[in-house]
Amino acid sequence: MTTQGSDVPAGGRRGRRGRAGRTLAGAVAALTVLGTLLTGCSSAPGELGVAWDTPADPKAEEANRGAWLSGDTLVHSRFDAVRGFDARTGKRNWEYVPPGRSAICHAAVDTGNSVLVLARDGDGTPGSAKNNGCVDVVAIDTEDGRELWHTALPALDSWSGRLQSFTVSAGAGLAVLLRGDDLAAVDTRTGKTRWKAALPKGCVPGTTAVAERQVAALLACGGTEHLLGDKVPSDAELFAAAFAPATGALLWSAPLGNRTTVPWDARAEFVSADPLVVAASSSGDSDSGAYFSFGATGRPNPPIDFSGSYGEIRREDRLTVAADDSRLYALTFHRLKNSRGNPTRLAAFDLATGEPVWGGTVEDDRLDGEAGYRILPHDGEITVLTSRRESPLFGDVTYLHGLRVLDAATGEQREARDFPEEDESVDTLFTHGDRLIGARYESYGYRSKPFTAYERR
């Protein structure tokens, strides 16, 4: 499986010198595999040892794109280059630099086929400044960094920023591309066209996500009120849809909202492609909204609101959630009166009912007072990356980082580990052999080490 933290929390996530952590943006997509490395029980956190470090990145900055593990290769994408490292030693094996001054706007990975698919602009102008005009798509072999194929997509219209936040997704042997009003899939290794999606009538395609059993997409459907120059009616509704990976046939489509309509330009992002889970504001960038999920046949489940008795899932934390086959796991924020701190708590929700299963209350602390900022589910467990503030009587405030492994069914803690005190926080974790590998790509202006391999002591 893949992981890219494209978007996570505040909640006290900082480096050793008190540097502010950044929300993971994104993108969305698929999560890391932790295997059985962290099973067992521990009454007090043990410290992880360092096996190797990659050198600090002198060009690390906010515009980094993500990190992945593909076979024995660790891939790190910056705005201006992609590099591959040996997961056994940390040695850098290759580097891909886009031609000219072009900048990488978005990256998606098909780990099963060792391909990274990049969307880049044409002249080096950052994608955010080009109104999502990054439609030059390139596939890179993650084993050696060579370019496999290249295609140019039609330029996105000015209205498309919300619905079409990026032009490509990848996985399961497919790269799914936005080609004007069409969704097309190509083979990730060869770039040959596999299919064009059978879109529902009256729908315009948007952001996509790929899983083994289905390709998920957001669609703007219906509406009659066209503003001058806009392709999508202003009163169009936001739909979710699933397509067959082999043929592009429509499996099902359904509106996000149940009794209320979610407008097409509401802020919406995929949490998971299978099960299909979407985080969507009620309109625009509003604080209100919910997680909408669907069964295998497209039957909608009850929504899970961004706020409730379990606390509040803040705007900056909405994509820290994670899902497995039956549950959604979230970090909820509680505003307390007459308190010096407002805690976060870990909660699990049943997707089928929308109801909390465990955690969420102020009294129910599953993380030993630490603030979580990343949730990684795998094989009946969830691993939560955490941070805690150390405030000595004299000296600088520091932030220490660790992880907690919990039973997904019960929320009971199975293991606690601390990262070395001098280490910067990691944005996600991979397992390779008997080691954990921490990846950093939300650098926020300081020169961090892209990868560190850890061992249990």
Give the overall silhouette. globular
Number of strands: 34
The main pleated sheet reads as: 8 strands, mixed
Alpha carbon gyration radius: 21 Å
| Helix proportion | under 10%
Cα distance spanning the termini: 27 Å
Number of helices: 0
Strands of the widest sheet, in order across it, are: 28-29-30-31-1-34-33-32
What structural category do the secondary elements indicate?
A: mainly beta
Describe the model.
The protein has 457 residues and is mainly β. It is built from no helices and 34 strands. The chain has strands spanning 46-53, 66-70, 73-77, 82-86, 92-96, 104-110, 115-120, 136-141, 147-152, 168-171, 174-179, 182-187, 193-196, 203-210, 215-221, 237-243, 250-255, 268-273, 276-281, 289-294, 304-305, 307-308, 311-312, 322-323, 327-333, 344-350, 356-359, 371-378, 381-390, 398-407, 413-418, 428-432, 435-439, 451-456. The strands form 8 sheets. It has an 8-stranded mixed β-sheet with strand order 28-29-30-31-1-34-33-32, with no helix packed on it. The protein has a 4-stranded antiparallel β-sheet with strand order 2-3-4-5, with no helix packed on it.
Q: Care to give the gist of this entry?
A:
By secondary structure, the protein is mainly beta.
What labels describe this entry?
457 residues, mainly beta, eight-stranded mixed β-sheet, 0% helix, disordered N terminus
List the helices and strands and how they pair.
Layout: E1 46-53, E2 66-70, E3 73-77, E4 82-86, E5 92-96, E6 104-110, E7 115-120, E8 136-141, E9 147-152, E10 168-171, E11 174-179, E12 182-187, E13 193-196, E14 203-210, E15 215-221, E16 237-243, E17 250-255, E18 268-273, E19 276-281, E20 289-294, E21 304-305, E22 307-308, E23 311-312, E24 322-323, E25 327-333, E26 344-350, E27 356-359, E28 371-378, E29 381-390, E30 398-407, E31 413-418, E32 428-432, E33 435-439, E34 451-456
Parallel strand pairs: 1-31
Antiparallel strand pairs: 1-34, 2-3, 3-4, 4-5, 6-7, 7-8, 8-9, 10-11, 11-12, 12-13, 14-15, 15-16, 16-17, 18-19, 19-20, 20-21, 22-23, 24-25, 25-26, 26-27, 28-29, 29-30, 30-31, 32-33, 33-34
InterPro entries: PQQ_rpt_dom, Quinoprotein_ADH-like_sf, WD40/YVTN_repeat-like_dom_sf
Protein name: Pyrrolo-quinoline quinone repeat domain-containing protein
Domain Pyrrolo-quinoline quinone repeat: 62-201
